[in-house]
Specification:
With 251 residues, the chain is an alpha/beta fold. Helix content is 41%, strand content 23%. Strand 1, helix 2 (36-50) and strand 2 (53-59) form a beta-alpha-beta unit.
Length: 251
C-alpha cells in the first residue's frame, strides 16, 4: 500500500496544481459505508496536497437519504446510485450527470478454516443458504436490499428471514462470522475482505450485480470548486489505484 500512497500523492499534486490558488475549504462529505476503506486513505492525501479539510460521514443508503433531505449542510456525496433514485435526495445535489467513482459485486464469506459450500450456480447457492444454520448481512442498506431481493428470487425469503442476524454497519458482517455468531456473511466483496473470514466466492453470475458509488456536489454548497476538485481527484489514476487495492473497480 505504500507504493499506491506514493503514486496517489504524486498524482494528486498534478491534479491540484491548476487550483492551487483556491482558498482552503472545509468540505463535508456524505459517503456510502462501503467506501470507507478507499476514502479513509484518499481523503488525507487530498488534504495534504490541496490544503482543504474533509469531514466524511459514512452511512447506509436509507440514512444518507435522510441526511441529504434533512436540510443540514453538506458539500458533496460519494454515495450508492440508489440515493439518486429518491427524488427529494436527488434535488439536494447539483443538476447534471453524476460521476461514477467505484463499483463492486456481492460475495459470501465463512469463518476462516470452515468448510466452504458450493455456491457456483443458483441451485447450489440456494442449497448452501438453506443448509446454513445462520447468516448475517446489513439489511438496512442498498446492498442489503439487493441481497434480500436475491433470496426472494430464489424463493427462500421466509427461510432466510428466520435465520438472519442483522448488522448495523458493513464491517460488523465479517466480524460476526469471524466470531462464529453467523455461519455465512453476505454483502459487497470489498467489505467482506477482513481478518478471521475467508471468501467463498462471488454470487453466481445469474444473481450477480454491481453496486455503483457515484459522486456529485451538493446543490447548495458554498465550496463548489473544492468539491469538484475532490471528485476530479477520485477519478485520477492515482486514486483509482487505491480503489482497486481496496477490492473495488473504478468508475
Amino acid at each position: 500500500m505504500k507504493n499506491s500512497s506514493v503514486v496517489s500523492v504524486l498524482g494528486l499534486a498534478l491534479v491540484m496544481s491548476p487550483i492551487a490558488n483556491l482558498q482552503a475549504a472545509e468540505l463535508k462529505v456524505l459517503a456510502g459505508g462501503s467506501m470507507t476503506g478507499s476514502l479513509n486513505e484518499l481523503g488525507p492525501l487530498f488534504e495534504r496536497a490541496s490544503g482543504h479539510k474533509i469531514t466524511i460521514h459514512y452511512d447506509s443508503t436509507p440514512n444518507l437519504i435522510k441526511l441529504a433531505t434533512s436540510g443540514a449542510p453538506f458539500d458533496l456525496g460519494v454515495v450508492p446510485v440508489d440515493v439518486f433514485k429518491d427524488a427529494a435526495a436527488k434535488a439536494r445535489f447539483a443538476s447534471g450527470p453524476t460521476i461514477d467513482i467505484a463499483r463492486v459485486g456481492y460475495g459470501v464469506v465463512v469463518r476462516a478454516g470452515a468448510q466452504k459450500p458450493d455456491i457456483g450456480t443458483p441451485a447450489a447457492f440456494k442449497q448452501a443458504l438453506l443448509k446454513a444454520a445462520s447468516i448475517t448481512l446489513l439489511p438496512e442498506s442498498a446492498a442489503g436490499a439487493y441481497v434480500l431481493s436475491v433470496f426472494e428470487r430464489l424463493g427462500i425469503g421466509a427461510d432466510m428471514k428466520a435465520k438472519t442476524k442483522p448488522q448495523t454497519a458493513p464491517a460488523q458482517i465479517a466480524q460476526a462470522v469471524a466470531r462464529g455468531d453467523a455461519e455465512l456473511g453476505l454483502f459487497l466483496t470489498n467489505v467482506l475482505i477482513a481478518p478471521g473470514v475467508e471468501l467463498i466466492g462471488p454470487f453466481p453470475a445469474e444473481l450477480q450485480q454491481d453496486l455503483v458509488f457515484t459522486a456529485a456536489a451538493a446543490a447548495n454548497t458554498t465550496e463548489a470548486e473544492a468539491a469538484k476538485a475532490f471528485i476530479t481527484y477520485l477519478t485520477t489514476p492515482a486514486a483509482t489505484a487505491v480503489i482497486k487495492a481496496k477490492g473495488m473497480r473504478p468508475g
